[in-house]
Structure prediction request, 461 residues.
Amino acid sequence: MSKMFVQGGTIAAIATAIVPQQGSVGIVRLSGLEAIAIARTLFHSPGHQKWESHRILYGYIRHPQTQQLVDEALLLIMQAPRSYTREDVVEFHCHGGIMAVQQVLQLCLESGARLAQPGEFTLRAFLNGRLDLTQAESISDLVGAKSPAAAQAALAGLQGKLAQPIRQLRASCLNILAEIEARIDFEEDLPPLNEKFIIAQIEDVLAETTKILSTSAQGELLRTGLKVAIVGRPNVGKSSLLNAWSKSDRAIVTDLPGTTRDVVESQLVVGGIPILVLDTAGIRETEDRVEKIGVERSRSAAQAADLVLLTIDAEAGWTSGDREIYEQVQHRPLILVINKIDLVGEIHQLSLPDNINSVVRTAAAINQGIDALEQAILDTARAGKLTAADLDLAINQRQAAALTRAKGSLDQVIATITNQLPLDFWTIDLRGAIQALGEITGEELTESVLDRIFSQFCIGK
Prediction:
């Protein structure tokens, strides 16, 4: 049992993002046995409104002792088990902003609730059987989704598209285990095991396990996206490229080399993949202290990027300065961008390093070549077996680790059978696979894993 749940009681938290002078509605959520009683203490509804489940009441929130008016609000009542947590839940829908919402939360705490810990509402939903663990993690993914594709993958998980095949795999393993243990307990009363049939069943489970495992890279790509760094010499058009790509004036563009002094970021979505684009300062030797700091940050950004767009000037061609930068970033996945092609009549054959396989020609100043650049990025991602298209499910790192353990255990079962070891040895690794699969959906789980998962949630979820 998780430490968060052992505390019990009625919990309260602000369930919406609160930004000063922004946001029209702020929600304070309570869950637990005293949730409705606390609401009755604080909320005053005029007229003859019925306090019934799944009704919205209009009224005022007042201090229970002084009767001072705190806010005009709506109250939503959801009685157990028809609520997110399967406990009594109430929500105060207050005016947005900081003061009103914080005052309402404080009144709830003074009336007997305690402040919820991160993810505690979803943890209670899991522990009360409303969600399995894959669905709970999908909620976190949906809240943090950075692209429509990421949101769709999270919704698929929330609908049970991952839990269902995992449960089927675990059920198959349990059936195999039952067959083996029956032979151990009643060997004389039952016919011998068909080893080839058992191996075939395990291989079927292994094939499906491997198929689900193959979505791990896609899932990570959807959740974290790609970090792409635009690097190159000063004045090759890196900032113009960022502005054209993002369709905004994020970076200052001038004819003067060294204009960009720091890393400028822009969030984009390409082919369903969230991309953080970093426009870096031109890399060159300089005595300017501020520019020198920018150059060092550019080098650091390039080293940390998933993909580097090495940008050169079509008029200047491949220079010794370009080669020096290339030697610093060549170990990273790289696309060569030949910019300013609108300023030259014809691009002559450039003497490029042999291992530069992806070359894109752009004219950022007139928005030319951006589609080709995006396609090159997607092709590079696919070459690394990363794609975000048409995903029915996408597992996360925790789920991938559990599946990897299950696969290893199943491989060992086959080796054990092949080596003609006693039936008792077959069951050891088969139980290991069953346990690993159960950890994914939460059917077999430790307190430390629960705390690690739900501590990553926001407090109001």
